[in-house]
Each structure stands twice: as structure tokens, then as C-alpha cells.
């Protein structure tokens, strides 16, 4: 059994490395990485420098994007978080009951959601729903030459299209993560209360006792970083679409895949930083 | 414009809610309390492994509060403390329903099971005596968990191991000595057997001696009994003689007196004297006058 697992692990690692090297080579070949970095620098300029030169971005667009990216994703995020909370509690209870340690189920649900599952799963949902939508929307605008039209009107597309989406995502993904954490903990409570006969106060106290403030804020930091990655990759993919409707589809798919990969790798890196750094 | 306004309101409401939820979670996780606890108690411990801020406090087994703060004692505080080993001060808040704690209350660290989280356990104490003041400091006792028992048992196991090693050496030596001794033991056993036979004969002879001694003792007993009866009869006779002698000596006093006063009376008789009767002389325990006055 063990040699088969080791073989799968080696094969999996090998395939991942080959895939990652191909992605990097492709990024270099198509100058996608260069464009991506350029977009990030443009964003920083339009957010931190341009307002001091009198070039403000449209606030109403930010709120509109907040509603689109964040508020409308709320039911999906809530359902996902609740499912995750319920699943975590049941899986933990299954194993911990054998040790007579089911009292630790709230600890596991709380810490896992705050540190890892909350930010990652909600970012996955936002990538699938809002990231792909942003890439498709900007891609369609590119294909239908609306972006060129903006440039003709001396309106910078980054300032007009990307900055509001970026700021909206930067605010709404952490907000959704907070809400998701609450809903996930509620899901854990449902299992503990109805299946394991926990009382509500006991569950809440154990959950609060297990985690500390850093657990919450490490999750929030991850969420903000994921927001940056997801929206910049989606906007970059949308703004670089070529080849009509087919290109829009390909760009949308590529944005989702790239955002997922980048998000998961970044998550591992951040977890490593938090783990070894503190 | 209308759509913009609704977007503003919805987005701002979501942001506000998120901030409120974030703030609530931060406050809950950090242990910050908006309402200051009415009653607190400080407990100094040598070691507080397993207990942290928010840990439960139980008074006589029932929930009574929470751990609200924990800090290391400074060098000066450790020097001034009664128990120099105390290193950590735990502050607990007590719920309003908890009665005043007796001064002899004992604070320990405990847990329901080996895997269960630890809590601060306060014993019931003795009612009716002094009570602890608010924010009083008391001495805490360490938890006696599996680790402590194992740590305490460590030296015991070491000693037991050493003892077993020594025993092993002793047994090996004993085995060698027995190997040398066993060939010599056979003649010794034969000698002991012979001695035992002789001893048995001696014991049988002693039985005969005992029988003879019993006969002698019986004869002596009879002799003593007979002698005793004779002695008693002679003693009675002697008693009668003595009584007669008593009467005779009393009456002899009268004769001696008459001879002393009037010796011619022996030749010329006179008037007869009235002597003290014999019964009176025998009954009296004192010397009596010979003549009746």
C-alpha cells in the first residue's frame, strides 16, 4: 500500500512540476507575465499617485462592483461555508469520538476555518463566480473594441475599468471571508448541537478558547492577498483577449485556472511565512 | 442615479456589517471585556501548562468564572512570594452568583479526562470562617496529571532498576556459592539425621523421667497432707495446754502473793480467798488479778 502511495506522490509531484514549468514558459513566451506586472504597476499608480495629481477614479463604479462581486456572491459563499463547517465538524467528530475527544470538534472547526478553509474556499468561490465574470466582461469589451473607444476618448481603461473592480474585490473578499467564517462556525455548531449534544454556550466558549486574534488576522491577510491575485489575473486576462468570442472563452478559462493556481501557491507560501515566521 | 444609491446603501451596509462582525470576533478572541469583572482573584502557580486566557474556572466543581489574565511574576515578586517556585500569576474573574470564597479555599489545575482541557479548580473551603477579599492573591497548587506522575515515578523506576541490577548480581553470586556448597551438604545432612535419632531417644527417656517425677510429686503431696493433719491436731492440743497454763499461772500468782504476805499460812490455814474463775481467765486477752476483787 505504502509503495503505491509513494509512487502516486512522486508522479503527482512530477506532473505538477512539468505543468508549472509549462505555464511559466508560456507566460514568458507570450509576455503575459510582463503584461501582468505592468498592470499591477498601473494599478498602484492610479490608486496611490494619480489622486494626488487630480485624476480621481469613479467612486460610484467601485460601489457598483462591490455589489456585483461581493453582495451577489453572498448566498453562494454562505452555502459553501455552511457546508464546509458541517463537513469539518462531522469528519472531526468521526475521528475524535474514537478517542473520546469530541470536545475538540469546535476547536478544529474554528481554527481550520479562520486560518485556512475560510479564506481559501471563499476565494475559490469568488474566482469561479466573480473572477471569471470580470475576465469575460473585460474580454468582451476588448473584442467589441470598447476599450479602444475609451482610449480614443482619453479615458484610461485601467483607471476606469480595473481600479474600481480591484478596490471592490479588495474590500469584499475579506468581508465575505468574515461572513463565511461565521456561517462555517454556525455549521459546526449545528452538527455539535444536534448530533453531539453540545450546548450552545459550551460550543461558543470552546471555539473562542481555541483560537486567538492572530488566527483571525492571518486569515484576513490571506484573503486580502487572494483578492489582489484573483482580480489582477482576471483583469489581465480580460484586457489581453484576442480572437473574438472564442478568445473570450479561452481567456475566461485561463483566468480561472491561473487564479486558482496562483491562489493555492500563494496560500502555501503565506502559510509557510506564518508558520516559520511566527 | 437610483441604482447608484441602492448600490451605495447595499455595499456600505455589507461593509459595515463585516466591520461589526470582525470587531466582535476580534474582541471575543482577544479576551477583551467591555464590562469590567466585579470580582477577581489572583492565583500564583509554579506551572500553568494547559491553562490559558478564557480557560474555565470551577468552584466546588460548578462553573464559576473564567481566566482573564496571565502573566509571569517579576524577579522581585518571586523573591517576595511565600513559595519561591511560583512563576506565573493567573487572574480569574468570578461570576456574580458565586458566594464569597472562604480563605482556606484551595486552587488547583484540573481536567475532566486526560484529553480534556484544563481548568482552574477551586475547592469548597470551610464555611463560616474568614472570606477572601476582592482581588486577593492566593497560592495555587500544581496539576497532578499523567506527566507529573510519570516525572515523579522516574527516580523510583531508576532506583528499582538499580535494585534489580544489584539483585541480579546477588542471585548470580548465590548461584555460584550454592554450586560450591551443595556437594558439602550431603554429609552434613547425614550427621543431622543421626543427631535427630539421638535426640528422639533423649526425648523418650525424658518422658520416663517425667512419669517418675509425677509419682514422687504424688507421694510428696500425700506426705504433706498427712503431716498437715497431724500438725493441726498437735496445734489444738498445744492450744489447750496453753489455756490451762494461763489459768495455772494466774492462780500461781495468788499462791505467790499469799506466801509473800503471810508465809505462816502454809502452816496455819486462814480464810479461803475467792479466785478469778477459769472461764474468765481463758476468755481474757489481758493478764487478770488472781483474786477476785
Write the layout of secondary structure elements.
The complex is a heterodimer of chains A (278) and B (293).
Chain A: H1 2-29, H2 32-49, H3 59-69, H4 74-98, H5 105-143, H6 146-152, H7 157-195, H8 200-210, H9 213-239, H10 244-277
Chain B: H1 2-30, E1 39-45, E2 56-59, E3 62-72, H2 75-80, E4 88-94, E5 107-111, E6 118-122, E7 136-141, H3 146-261, H4 278-283
Parallel strand pairs in B: 1-7, 2-6, 5-7
Antiparallel strand pairs in B: 1-4, 2-3, 3-4, 5-6
Q: Strand share of the residues of chain B?
A: 15-25%
Order of helices and strands of chain A, N to C? HHHHHHHHHH
Provide mean pLDDT of chain A, rounded.
88
What is the oligomeric state here?
heterodimer
Total of helices of chain A: 10
Helix content of chain B: 40-55%
Name the overall outline of chain B. Answer: elongated
Please tell me the overall pLDDT of chain B.
Answer: 84
Broad structural category of chain B? alpha/beta
* N→C terminal distance of chain B: 168 Å
Descriptive notes:
The complex is a heterodimer of chains A (about 280) and B (about 290). Chain A is mainly α. Helix content of chain A is about 85%, strand content about 0%. Chain A folds into two domains: about 30 residues; about 250 residues, no CATH class. Chain A contains ten helices and no strands. The model of chain A has no long low-confidence stretch (mean pLDDT about 90). By secondary structure, chain B is an alpha/beta fold. Among the domains of chain B are: about 30 residues; about 110 residues, no CATH class. In chain B, about 55% of the residues lie in helices and about 15% in strands. Chains A and B meet through helix 3, helix 7, helix 8 and helix 9 of A and helix 1 of B.
Amino acid at each position: 500500500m505504502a509503495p503505491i502511495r509513494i509512487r502516486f506522490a512522486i508522479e503527482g509531484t512530477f506532473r505538477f512540476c512539468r505543468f508549472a514549468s509549462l505555464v511559466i514558459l508560456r507566460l514568458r513566451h507570450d509576455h503575459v507575465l510582463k503584461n501582468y506586472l505592468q498592470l499591477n504597476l498601473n494599478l498602484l499608480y492610479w490608486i496611490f499617485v494619480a489622486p494626488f495629481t487630480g485624476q480621481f477614479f469613479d467612486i460610484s463604479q467601485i460601489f457598483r462592483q462591490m455589489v456585483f462581486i461581493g453582495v451577489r456572491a453572498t448566498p453562494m459563499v454562505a452555502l459553501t461555508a455552511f457546508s464546509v463547517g458541517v463537513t469539518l465538524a462531522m469528519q472531526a467528530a468521526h475521528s475524535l469520538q474514537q478517542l473520546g475527544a469530541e470536545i475538540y470538534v469546535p476547536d478544529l472547526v474554528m481554527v481550520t476555518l479562520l486560518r485556512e478553509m475560510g479564506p481559501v474556499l471563499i476565494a475559490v468561490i469568488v474566482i469561479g463566480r466573480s473572477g471569471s465574470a470580470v475576465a469575460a466582461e473585460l474580454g468582451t469589451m476588448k473584442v467589441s473594441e470598447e476599450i479602444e473607444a475609451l482610449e480614443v476618448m482619453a479615458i484610461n481603461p485601467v483607471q476606469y475599468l480595473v481600479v474600481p473592480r480591484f478596490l471592490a474585490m479588495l474590500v469584499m473578499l475579506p468581508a465575505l471571508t468574515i461572513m463565511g467564517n461565521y456561517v462555517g462556525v454556525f455549521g459546526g455548531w449545528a452538527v455539535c448541537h444536534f448530533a453531539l449534544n453540545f450546548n450552545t454556550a459550551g460550543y461558543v466558549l470552546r471555539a473562542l478558547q481555541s483560537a486567538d486574534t492572530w488566527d483571525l488576522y492571518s486569515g484576513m491577510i490571506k484573503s486580502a492577498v487572494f483578492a489582489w491575485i484573483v482580480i489582477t489575473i482576471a483583469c489581465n486576462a480580460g484586457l489581453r483577449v484576442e480572437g473574438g468570442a472564442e478568445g473570450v472563452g479561452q481567456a475566461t478559462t485561463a483566468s480561472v485556472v491561473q487564479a486558482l493556481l496562483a491562489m493555492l501557491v500563494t496560500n502555501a507560501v503565506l502559510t509557510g511565512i506564518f508558520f516559520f515566521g511566527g | 442615479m437610483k441604482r447608484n444609491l441602492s448600490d451605495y446603501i447595499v455595499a456600505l451596509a455589507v461593509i459595515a456589517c463585516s466591520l461589526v462582525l470582525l470587531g466582535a470576533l476580534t474582541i471575543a478572541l482577544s479576551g477583551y471585556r467591555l464590562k469590567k469583572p466585579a470580582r477577581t482573584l489572583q492565583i500564583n502557580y509554579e506551572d500553568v501548562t494547559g491553562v490559558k486566557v478564557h480557560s474555565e474556572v470551577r468552584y466546588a466543581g460548578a462553573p464559576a468564572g473564567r481566566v482573564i489574565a496571565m502573566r509571569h511574576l517579576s524577579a522581585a515578586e518571586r523573591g517576595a512570594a511565600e513559595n519561591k517556585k511560583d512563576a506565573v500569576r493567573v487572574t480569574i474573574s468570578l461570576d456574580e452568583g458565586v458566594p464569597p470564597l472562604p480563605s482556606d479555599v484551595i486552587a488547583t489545575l484540573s481536567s475532566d479526562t486526560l484529553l480534556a482541557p484544563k481548568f482552574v479548580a477551586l475547592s469548597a473551603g470551610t464555611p463560616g470562617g474568614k472570606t477572601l477579599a476582592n482581588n486577593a492573591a492566593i497560592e495555587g497548587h500544581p496539576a497532578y496529571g499523567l506527566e507529573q506522575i510519570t516525572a515523579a515515578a522516574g527516580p523510583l523506576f531508576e532506583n528499582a532498576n538499580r535494585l534489580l541490577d544489584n539483585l541480579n548480581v546477588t542471585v548470580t553470586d548465590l548461584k555460584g556459592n550454592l554450586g560450591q556448597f551443595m556437594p558439602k551438604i550431603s554429609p552434613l545432612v547425614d550427621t543431622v539425621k543421626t543427631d535427630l535419632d539421638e535426640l528422639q531417644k533423649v526425648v523418650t527417656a525424658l518422658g520416663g523421667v517425667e512419669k517418675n517425677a509425677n509419682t514422687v510429686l504424688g507421694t510428696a503431696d500425700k506426705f504433706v497432707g498427712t503431716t498437715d493433719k497431724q500438725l493441726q491436731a498437735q496445734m489444738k492440743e498445744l492450744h489447750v495446754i496453753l489455756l490451762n497454763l494461763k489459768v495455772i499461772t494466774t492462780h500461781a500468782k495468788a499462791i505467790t502473793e499469799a506466801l509473800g504476805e503471810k508465809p505462816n499460812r502454809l502452816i496455819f490455814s486462814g480464810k479461803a480467798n475467792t479466785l478469778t474463775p477459769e472461764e474468765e481467765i481463758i476468755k481474757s486477752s489481758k493478764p487478770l488479778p488472781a483474786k477476785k476483787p
